[in-house]
Amino acid sequence: MNIVILAGSNRKNATSTRLGEYAAEIIRAQGHEAHLFNLYEKPLPFYAPDEKQDTDEHLAALNALMLAADAVILSSPEYHGSISGVLKNALDHLSQAHFSGKPVLSISSAGGAVGVSSLTQMQTMVRNLHGINAPEWISIGGAQRRRFEAALDGYEEFEGSQDVEDRVQRVLGSFLNLAQTLTAAKKAL
């Protein structure tokens, strides 16, 4: 399977991006392809429906990756109870052609306890793009973010890090099972 992770932060060492990178490692270890599209490293132009923007190289790369994806993971920090502006901008550039019938997992990183508002907003957008929301999501917040902070060398251990890892691996396992089931059903048609 081919899974695209859209990392929606405009911060160099965002914990939400590092969480997406960790998800990619787990997915690859299970024998699947995982492509992380980092919006910090590959910024997109502001969505402007009246302007021709198909010559932007980052936008063309995102378009191709998303069309080829069997499943998608959206990763965002939670800013003021919402998703990041760069992720919203990226989703505005995409359409039902990129999401229709594909399973989508939403993940977030919040400064507070958890980022539920951003997760529900991502799921609403996925429904409007005709994607299939995974029944679970991943949110890390507060001390749970230490596992993914860039100030640490690699993914450092801290009290409770095993619980975070176990939860991420469990939810990713469930998501991969859903994605495999849906991908097999599409191929059988």
TrEMBL record:
Gene3D superfamilies: 3.40.50.360. Transmembrane segments: none annotated. Coiled coil: none annotated. SUPFAM superfamilies: Flavoproteins (SSF52218). It is an enzyme of class 1 (oxidoreductase). It holds the Pfam family FMN_red. Its EC number is 1.-.-.-. It comes from the Bacteria. This is NADPH-dependent FMN reductase. One of its GO terms (cellular component) is cytosol. GO terms for molecular function: FMN binding; oxidoreductase activity. Residues 1-143 form the NADPH-dependent FMN reductase-like domain. Belongs to the azoreductase type 2 family. Signal peptide: none annotated. Keywords: Oxidoreductase.
